[in-house]
TrEMBL record:
Residues 178-229 form the HAMP domain. The keyword ATP-binding applies. Its main location: membrane. This is histidine kinase. The lineage of its organism: Bacteria, Pseudomonadati, Pseudomonadota, Alphaproteobacteria, Rhodobacterales. GO terms for cellular component: plasma membrane. PANTHER family: SENSOR HISTIDINE KINASE ENVZ, SENSOR PROTEIN CREC. Coiled coil: none annotated. It comes from Ketogulonicigenium robustum. Keywords: ATP-binding, Cell inner membrane, Cell membrane, Kinase, Membrane, Nucleotide-binding, Phosphoprotein, Transferase, Transmembrane, Transmembrane helix, Two-component regulatory system. It is a multi-pass membrane protein. It catalyses: ATP + protein L-histidine = ADP + protein N-phospho-L-histidine. It is an enzyme of class 2 (transferase). SUPFAM superfamilies: ATPase domain of HSP90 chaperone/DNA topoisomerase II/histidine kinase, Homodimeric domain of signal transducing histidine kinase. It is found in: Cell inner membrane.
Length: 434
């Protein structure tokens, strides 16, 4: 039952708060109005019907005498009492007629039936008039009168009052509720944007609990920013300081006559490659401001440059439009995916799909792929999956997929690894929400 209700519950906080506010109010007022109006109609109709029976009894007393003179007198009395007397043109049945929702009609019928009048049938099918079929000594007659004589005329005032007060109170409650929910909405927007790598101005406000949560978020965001900056500065400084002695070593080894100098020079170059990878990893989440760029064109330019190194096929792209991205970061992530695919496969394809909700950049190869059990581990820094990817075809420090995953996360997206159905190797997909 709870699962069924959850499937129909609104998703937003505003809608749920409005539902919590409106349902009790409408239920309470509707129940009170229904019970009160029903009793009001029944009691008023019953009282008015009792007075009506006195007039009917007086009118029937003339009809009971019989004769033309009595009928004429009855017509005179009927006009004075606002009744209308007619002789039935056909046989009248014994079944009363009324609508299902006619509450006052039921009260009228029960009251008239409880009296001593020789009533055969009461017809309430006409909403404006009531027809009462009576058997008298002079024969059957149909006495009719206006329905408003036994109906309450001011019952709608209660409905109008309830409706006006409900709208007014709901509006006041909505204004108050919106002011209370606005700080929560601002906190959610700031959290979502920060998850996408965007820092927007945010100041805690609202109730005490909401203000405390907002202050905790702001402090957490500032602490993360400080840690990222400190890590970036530290690794950048270490990498910069190490380049000078490495350059001297390369120069000394290049002019050295030592037979081991070429091997040592290769080690030095590998160290430089590792430093470059470290810098790429530190820059992946400490990037510049977001820019509106065409992601399809960005992928096309990156693939065109990668084709100078090895064969890469750019598949037909889908979608058009601009999107907020860090172009250098996206290029670096795509370069890493293409480089890995070229290293372990002979056929590489790249596709870009820009939809209404997200951007998808897909790189596939025909290499050995990565087992499903190791795909999550493959995106961690400094992890090298030698059994899954042939190490003899290239060396690395285990930061390629980690950089891609970090770039995707900094844009509020993710990196998905799976098996390529078209090529049989690895399928790497960057998904970024718009």
């Amino acid at each position: 039952m709870l699962g069924f209700l959850k499937s129909y519950m609104p998703r937003s906080l505003y809608a749920r708060a409005a539902l919590i506010l409106l349902v009790p109010i409408l239920t309470l007022q509707g129940t009170i109005a229904l019970v009160f109006i029903q009793r009001h109609f029944e009691q008023v109709t019953q009282q008015m019907a009792e007075y009506l029976m006195i007039d009917l009894d007086y009118l029937v007393s003339f009809l009971e005498v019989g004769g033309d003179t009595s009928l004429a007198e009855a017509q005179t009395v009927a006009r004075a009492l606002h009744f209308r007397i007619e002789a039935p043109d056909r046989e009248v049945g014994n079944t009363d007629t009324l609508a299902f929702e006619d509450v006052s009609g039921r009260a009228l019928i029960s009251t008239l039936r409880a009296g001593d009048l020789p009533i055969r049938r009461i017809d309430l099918s006409d909403p404006r008039r009531v027809f009462v079929s009576i058997d008298t000594a002079a024969g059957p007659f149909v006495i009719s009168f206006e329905r408003r004589r036994i109906a309450a005329t001011n019952a709608h005032q209660l409905l109008v009052l309830i409706g006006v007060l409900s709208v007014l109170l709901t509006f006041v409650s909505y204004v108050f509720l919106r002011n209370q929910l606005r700080p929560i909405k601002r906190l959610a927007e700031a959290s979502i944007e920060y998850g996408k790598g965007r820092v927007i101005p945010y100041r805690p406000s609202g109730a005490t609990e909401v203000r405390a949560a907002g202050a905790a978020f702001a402090e957490m965001r500032n602490r993360i920013e400080r840690q990222v900056q400190q890590r970036t500065l530290m690794l950048s400084g270490v990498s910069h300081d190490l380049r000078t002695p490495l350059t001297r070593l390369k120069l000394a080894l290049s002019i050295s006559d030592d037979p081991d100098a070429p091997d040592m020079l290769g080690d030095v170059e590998e160290m430089e490659h590792m430093l470059d990878a470290f810098l790429d990893f530190t820059r992946s989440d400490a990037e510049a401001e977001l820019e509106y760029v065409d992601p399809i064109a960005l992928v096309g330019d990156t693939v065109a440059k990668a084709q100078r190194v090895g064969p890469v096929t750019l598949l037909q792209s889908e979608g058009k439009g601009m999107m907020q991205l860090r172009p250098d970061s996206i290029r670096r992530a795509l370069d890493n995916l293409i480089a890995n695919a070229q290293r372990y496969g002979t056929h590489v394809t790249v596709a870009a799909q820009l939809g209404e909700r997200n951007l998808r950049i897909i790189v596939e190869d025909d290499g050995p792929g990565i087992p499903a059990a190791l795909r999550e581990e493959a995106t961690r820094p400094f992890v090298r999956l030698d059994p899954a990817r042939n190490q003899d075809k290239g060396s690395g420090v285990g930061l390629g997929l980690a950089i891609v995953a970090d770039v995707a996360r900094s844009h509020g997206g993710q990196l998905r690894l799976s098996q390529s159905e078209a090529l049989g190797g690895l399928r790497a997909e960057i998904v970024i929400a718009r």
